[in-house]
Amino acid sequence: MKTTAVIMAGGKGERFWPKSRSNMPKQFLSLTGDGKTMIRLTAERHLPMVSWEDIYVVTNRDYVPLVTEQVPEIPAENILAEPTARNTAPCVGYAASVIQQKYGDAVMLVLASDHLIKNNRMYLDTMAQAAEIAIEGDSLCTVGITPSYPETGYGYIHFGYDENTPKHRGVYTVKKFVEKPDLATAKEYLNSGEYLWNSGMFVWKASSILDRIRKLMPDLYNGLSEIAESRGEYDAEAVLERVYRTFPSVSIDYGIMEKAEGVFTIPGSFGWDDAGSWLALARINKTDENGNIVNGDVITIGTRDCIIVGGGRLIATVGLEDTVVVDTDDTLLIARKESAQDIKKVIENLKICNRRSLV
Amino acid sequence: MKTTAVIMAGGKGERFWPKSRSNMPKQFLSLTGDGKTMIRLTAERHLPMVSWEDIYVVTNRDYVPLVTEQVPEIPAENILAEPTARNTAPCVGYAASVIQQKYGDAVMLVLASDHLIKNNRMYLDTMAQAAEIAIEGDSLCTVGITPSYPETGYGYIHFGYDENTPKHRGVYTVKKFVEKPDLATAKEYLNSGEYLWNSGMFVWKASSILDRIRKLMPDLYNGLSEIAESRGEYDAEAVLERVYRTFPSVSIDYGIMEKAEGVFTIPGSFGWDDAGSWLALARINKTDENGNIVNGDVITIGTRDCIIVGGGRLIATVGLEDTVVVDTDDTLLIARKESAQDIKKVIENLKICNRRSLV
Fold first, then answer.
1. Closest residue in chain A to residue B330, using alpha carbons only
2. What are the structural domains, with CATH classification, of chain B?
3. Mind listing the pLDDT tens digit for each residue in B46-72?
4. What residues in chain B have their Cβ under 8 A from chain A's Cβ atoms?
5. Residue B176's closest CA among B150, B200, B195?
6. A58-93 pLDDT, tens per residue?
7. Strand (E) or helix (H) holding A43
């Protein structure tokens, strides 16, 4: 059976502001030293398993030019433009419907466009095993990440065995998806050995996920069928436009995964990072001898453990510690690492003051 | 007797980098909320005592256009252009010689172009008294500042009485000029009540200072005479150019004041600030409720005791404390207040790397 990769690239992530903007979200930025953007890294990572013509991108209509520019190898018809953002359930359903129509059926690797993987080979082994499980039965497979510390910013997967657990080594039944915990709970999860981080990556057959959507989100299913019937007709665009707007804004986790039968997980320990804020740069990239990540024309004097992302100008830092500096043509951000979560207050402030060109 | 003001404006101060540059030194910057540049504030401060046509500026030839632009009320012939920088003794001598030639004799208020005064009225009272002393005798009068804390960055004046001390209230004999002390010594000075800060402001008659120069720096005196004789002649410019280059680079403090007879001091407590670094902005200007000085398009979130000097762009600070941020079109400085003295290392670095356009 054909294996496809479906890259979800509609996010408007604000957490890399001011480099990320509503017209240039995180997945289209380069955060690693190699200069490749997140979406390009995501696509290339799967090439040993999926050929370019079987890679799909679901994104907001506005971002199609960015996708075309950054991953020109992906065929234009594989770039699925959502008329409006409706969270991941409609996004995944739309891709599944297109893939079913084209291939009859196929395995879908459903992927975030803006996560990083340290060990690509281990990662591909995990995805290959997940694909095997998906092909064998009608299961929904989610990739869990073996937690390395009590992170409070992720959702967790409580996993175990039951009579339906596939007879493969390293495959488990999902008992429950749980929300972001507080620190005490996160520590319990970590120590119990029964929890994984929810990476938001899924593997299943198009037929398997569409079947669950039919049962659990019938309105979405019917809408997707209507769109599928119109494909190739003169009014395809108009139908997509009209029907997509009626879809509820629901995540695939909430809409399907938490309620469906036959949900399994494969724990991965290939080094996963959701690159959720500027602080991730210090985890992802090599630091200098003073613990700094420095990018651009920067002179550091007595500067330690800083993340400095330059723009066109000289940046001189003197005696600075534990600070994030991000310089762009129109905006400069200086944030203490410990206050990084408050960067969103700046964005709120800009929205309130109607300065949307800076957001 | 006529009173003149002589503003020394040849300094190349680097301590307000990156706003100050070799082609735009501190005296031509505005550091106060009113938008007036330091040299303009200096000139205007003396108007109750000295009319525009009696204000002189001695500056480097390169800065004449800046002076003309910022204080156009000063007559062009009062702007004395040094062909080359030779510290303050030649600068003061040059002005004294021009003033003696024009007026026969006159009181000179010799002033830094880049200091700030809080209480102008008290300041003018002090200067008026100094002018009286200068007229009465042949003395050299220096304005001392009553120290308010044990500053280690200033020179001090040890003062007292002797048989020559003028019989005016609040006028003292200078026993000794002393160099910048260490902290323990500065504390002793402060507690003794016998020391003043050396403000670098002087009051004397042109004839008095020229007489001391004749005795203590005869080569300088002869050179000044040669320049004076050529004034108005066809070769005046060439003589100035040739002779000025032969002058030694010596301060008026070292060349004259420390060695001369008849040196008195008048302590002032009118609120003086030499505005010696970016940190001065927090002393000079009103801070917001979080202790910040903010200038330009700035959003502060959880930011305390910072000095933020914006350029054209939005600056957002998050969780920042005790930090100086200065943004210009081509350069951005971010320095912890406690490391402000290391800003000069950035400038050294730029010079070494031959990036003089940024210095």
1. A313
2. 3-273 (3.90.550.10), 281-358 (no CATH)
3. 999 999 999 999 999 999 999 999 999
4. 18, 299, 301-302, 313-321, 323, 325, 327-336, 338-340, 342-343, 345-346, 349-350, 355, 358
5. B195
6. 999 999 999 999 999 999 999 999 999 999 999 999
7. helix A38-45
